[in-house]
Amino acid sequence: MADVMNSRASGDSAVDFDPLSPTFFDDPYPTYKRLRDEAPVYHNETYGFYALSRHEDVLAAHRDWQTFSSTHGLTLDQLCSGTTEVQESIIMQDPPEHDRMRKLVSRVFAPKAIEALEPDARALMRSLLDELGDPSDFDVVADFSAPFPVEVISMMLGVPKESRQQIRHWTDLMLHREAGKAETPPEGIEAAFNMGVRFWEIVQEKRQNPDGLMISRLCDVEVVRDDDGTMTRLTDAEIAGFATLMAAAGSETVTKLVGSGIVQFARNPGEWQKVVDDPSLIPGAVEETLRIAPPSQYQGRFSHQESTWHGETIPANQPVLLLTGAATHDPRAFDDPDAFDIEREQRMSVGFGHGIHLCIGAFLARMESRVAFEELSKRYPKFEIDESGLQRVHMSNVAGYSNVPFRAA
Question: Are 397 and 297 in contact (CB under 8 A)?
Fold first, then answer.
């Protein structure tokens, strides 16, 4: 191992991890295995980032926000842009700013609040399935798991109905990346601008006509800005930025989780039969899907001080990727990690992040995914997918399918 590490440190490692390559977009898991075994502290000289891939290491780094800061961004293009600090939203903040902002919305995403939302989410999913042109032959992502999550999060935010699906399309453009290019393409930049403007307009509307929903409530709250206890209200730009983040994250994660889950079930029909026979197993199926195909493949951080892992040093002031997709397949943490087993005894999850930046919408995402599998399993006790029609997204740090052709068997 020492020889391998010395070779890697000198830039001669045979392991090549490129998060902007077709290999990463289509199937990064063989590369992840090599990273965990041969270069658990990986350095990519082309882009200038370090990466941690073992489950234990990824967990530890998530917990150490003093060393691994979020204030420089989360994606490779943000981390490598040379910007000193971003801090545009809650996921790009460290304490105490992060803690103050999180408290503002934590109640909206509390378990009891999400449980109260479940009947509306279920009714929405049933409506989508009822409206399918051919209910036995459709695209389970394009026709189902893509439209409903943005409706749910938009309903929580207070976004007008006519803008909800456009938010999803803008988000897709914002996250898309071309192979070998870290920067957001022009279409994505335009989409980000248009989405920000639309949310700014919604903030103005809520100030004139408050409705008690999340954006409206954020217009009224006060936050402590300084250590002297000074209280100020959020600016319109801050509220619009926060709402943009919530809408984008709330629409993408569940879309990819449900689509990937259906692909796994199609390849493992015995596991699908289990949930058909016993719906109480569906929460475990959600966790196993999150483990085997996490929608967020990595979380970016920036090292504020040097740290040592397996005898290797990650210097200060360096981009660092915490590889979620590698950690959830680590045999040091999971027996037979590449097998899809919905009754698996799960270890500490990193699928929705960990530590202070554990996804604030995790409970919502789990509820939506569970209800989606429940509704599909009731209607389609047997199904198949067209493997030749599967299409993966090419996004910054999001993985999953844009198309999963589905047919009742």
Answer: yes
The DSSP output letter for 142 is I
> In this structure, are residues 301 and 322 in contact, taking their beta carbons and an 8 Å threshold?
yes
Cα 258 from Cα 230, distance rounded (Å): 44
Question: Given this model, what pLDDT does residue 83 score?
Answer: 60
pLDDT over threshold 90, residue 224: no
- Contact criterion met (CB below 8 Å) for 390 and 404: yes
Q: Is 47 helix (H, G, I), strand (E, B) or coil?
A: coil
What's residue 326's pLDDT? Answer: 97
Statement: residue 218 has pLDDT above 90: no
Between 108-112, 114-118, 154-158, 329-333, the lowest mean confidence (pLDDT) is in: 108-112
- In angstroms, the Cα distances linking 54 to 2, 112, 214, 265 are 17, 34, 37, 26
**Average of pLDDT values for 13-25?**
86
Which domains, ranges and CATH numbers included, belong to the chain?
2-10+18-140+250-408 (1.10.630.10)
Average pLDDT over residues 134-149: 95
Q: List pLDDT tens digits, range 54-86.
A: 999 999 999 999 999 998 888 888 887 766 555
β-pairing verdict for 137-139 and 405-408:
antiparallel
C-alpha triplet 358, 59, 51: angle, nearest 5°: 105
Q: Which amino acid is at 236?
A: D
Beta bridge partner(s), residue 44: 49
pLDDT(11) > 60: no
Percent of the chain clearing pLDDT 90 (strictly above)? 66
Q: Which uninterrupted H or E stretch holds 277?
A: helix 269-277
Long-range contacts, stretch 273-278, CB < 8 angstroms, 24+ apart:
273/381, 274/342, 274/343, 275/342, 275/373, 275/377, 276/377, 276/381
Sign of CA dihedral 188, 191, 193, 199: negative
Element (H, E) at 323: strand 319-323
Residue given tokens 């902007």 in the structure block: 20
* Pairing of β 49-52 and β 319-323: parallel
